[in-house]
Amino acid sequence: MALLTFTALLFVGALLAGLLGALTGLGGGVVLVPLLTLGFHVDIRYAIGVSLISVIATSSGAAAAYVREGFSSVRIGMFLEVATTLGAILGAYLATVVHTQALAIIFGVVLLYSSFLSWQQARNPVPELKKGSPWSGRLRLSGDYPAKDGSRCKYEVENIPGGFGMMFVAGALSGLLGIGSGAVKVLAMDRIMKVPFKVSTTTSNFMIGVTAAASAGIFLHRGLIAPGLAFPVMLGVLSGSLIGARYLVRAHVGVLRIVFTFVVLALGVEMIVNGVKQWF
């Protein structure tokens, strides 16, 4: 394959991954790593390193727009990033010593779990609760977000310790697998802390860049980030995330999650099968 064709295909694939990641809050890395390893035969460690750089681009592109429009909760994001950053450092260290076949299988399992979460959230949206946690007021984590009619919808945050612990798991997955681990972040905020879906999705986009940056430094130090791969992927993901941020408000999230579910399900099965074949 010619270099120019290879670069163009990388850009298009990354653009679609960034678009999907920005619209769903799950991060483009969950699609990008399988795309690089299965479609372009890139070693999974280098794919994870490139994915971490792209996740930073996704967050930088989408998060600025979401914060400006009043959807993201900066206070919730910064509070939970303490847990995700610690987890990301641990995950990045483990990624450099764990066998590549094991990484592929772990990644496939995470993809299947992400697919299940997307399907559940599409079918059973969680209603917003009016009751909050005592810590929500002390930490000033409750807030509001804009509705379609121009009004502001208020919300209260619950079960902060449970969400904080889940964020550590999300950070470890991000560092280990090179993904934004947005599925776990959205799960923690939406299902455990009872944050409204649009707020949890946009805040997840805000957070994934900080989590990825914490582990990307370790990959860079170990020479596992290839600039020739990272540059077109980063540009593609950034472009896709900016487009996704623009159309999030009018997009039907339920339909997007159903599409995402089947795509991620197929990728997860393929990653597990390939990992098992290479192992044996």
Describe the structure.
The structure is a single chain. This protein is an all-alpha fold and 280 residues long. It has one domain (3-279). 76% of the residues lie in helices and 3% in strands. It has helices spanning 3-24, 29-39, 44-69, 74-95, 100-123, 134-139, 160-177, 182-192, 197-221, 227-247, 253-279, and strands at 143-146, 152-155. The chain has a two-stranded antiparallel sheet. The longest helix is centred in the last third of the chain and has 27 residues, at 253-279. It is globular and about 55 Å long. The mean pLDDT is 76.
Short descriptors:
280 residues, globular, 11 helices, two-stranded antiparallel sheet
In short:
The protein has 280 residues and is mainly α. It has eleven helices and two strands, in the order ααααααββααααα.
Broad shape? globular
**Share of helix among residues?**
over 70%
Strand % is under 5%
Q: Residue ranges: pLDDT <50 for 5 or more in a row? A: none
Structural class: mainly alpha
Order of helices and strands: HHHHHHEEHHHHH
- Give the helix tally: 11
